[in-house]
Amino acid sequence: MNNFIIPANTKKSQLILGWFTPTDLIIFGTGCALTIVMLIIMQNAKFGELILILLPALVTGFLVMPVPNYHNVLQLITNIFNFYKNRRNYYWKGWCVSDEYQDETK
20 by DSSP, 3-state: which? Predict the structure, then answer.
């Protein structure tokens, strides 16, 4: 009997460190670099300013954080946006529906 089991982690081998795509690393790297530059520029920051300075790294880190059933939060947000933006009228074309129109008046 041909019983094949597909491993659950087949897509992980295509990701960097099993979690990230190159785009994810670029996004996170940009956020961290911006945070480092702002930390260098504003050395004597108060607590509120420090939170604002750390925001780029925190936001991009949140976007590339892995979540169950999706690659990451950014992919989840993209899928939700596409779901609400695109057409959601699905037309049934099952196995019992013919692709050709048949005129029943003949």
Answer: strand
